[in-house]
Amino acid sequence: MEINFSTLRSADCYKVLAGLVTPRPIAWVTTVNDAGVVNAAPFSFFNCFGSNPPILAFAPGNREPGLPKDTARNIRNSREFVVNIADEALAEQMVATSTALPYGESELETTGLSAAASTAIAVPRIEEAPVAFECREWATLEIGSNRMVVGTVHHAHIRDGLLDPETLRLNHGLFHPVGRMAAPDWYCRTGDQYEIVRPE
Ligand SMILES: Cc1cc2nc3c(=O)[nH]c(=O)nc-3n(C[C@H](O)[C@H](O)[C@H](O)COP(=O)(O)O)c2cc1C
After folding, report:
1. Which among 44, 46, 109 is the best mutation to test ligand 1's pocket, defined by most ligand atoms within 8 Å of the CB?
2. Is-above-0.90 flag for pTM?
3. Which residue owns the Cα nearest ligand 1 atom 10?
4. Structural domain containing residue 76
5. CA of 194 to the centre of ligand 1 (A)
6. 35-52 pLDDT, tens digit each
């Protein structure tokens, strides 16, 4: 099978890309609006892209032509956000925060989650999340109706025990992030991992 993307509708481009570029990590992003209300939403068009400086990027599509999702709108104003990572225990609440509430209503309140103060930025993180990266917007690329938010990472909150404090290596078996699989509603667990040692 071959597919010519130049004649494919964007909804079908989404099905093909989101079905085959898997598994994807999920950024569970918190932002604040001018009134201080905390917004939370998941984004699986997400990854980290470098360490010098440390950068993350995720891509909220526009809700309608020219109209950003609340996350992108808040970042445009405050230039700060937190990327929280959800584990298996939080997966259902993470998905529940994808509901499109009216602007200014908090998905944390409707899903029983708590906001905890960040250290370097004003945007709170999700207290229950095992990992949270405090970020400042570096740039937002607008490509058609996609917005790609690139942020530098300034501070991290990591549940005790996940990383070895000396080596900063992950303690395998304690961190259970979920991955995004094919649309509309598929996910994977990350409990079945194996090692392939690189050649010298
Ligand atoms: C697991 C998951 C991943 C998602 N990934 C994206 C994404 O990468 N880009 C996007 O625009 N929407 C994505 N969505 C949909 C948004 O979460 C949804 O539109 C949400 O209402 C946006 O919230 P906001 O308007 O508060 O920013 C995803 C939803 C789920 C459940």
Report:
1. 44
2. yes
3. 60
4. 7-188
5. 30
6. 999 999 999 999 999 999
What is the residue type of 174? L
Query: How confident is the model over 105-125, as pLDDT tens digits?
Result: 999 999 999 999 999 999 999
List CB contacts of 18: < 8 A, sequence separation 6 or more: 24, 44, 180, 182, 183
Q: Which helix (H) or strand (E) holds 75?
A: helix 70-78
Q: How many domains does the chain have?
A: 1
Per-residue pLDDT at 172: 85
Say yes or no: CB of residue 128 within 6 Å of ligand 1: no
Identify whether 43 is part of a domain.
Answer: yes
In a domain, 200, yes or no: no
**How far apart are alpha carbons 61 and 55 in whole angstroms?**
20
Q: Is residue 172 part of a domain?
A: yes
* pLDDT more than 70, % of the chain: 100
Residue 193 lies in a domain: no
- Whichever domain contains 30, its CATH number is 2.30.110.10
The pLDDT of residue 12 is above 90: yes
Q: Is 73 in the pocket of ligand 1 (CB under 6 A)?
A: no
Three-state secondary structure call for residue 187: strand
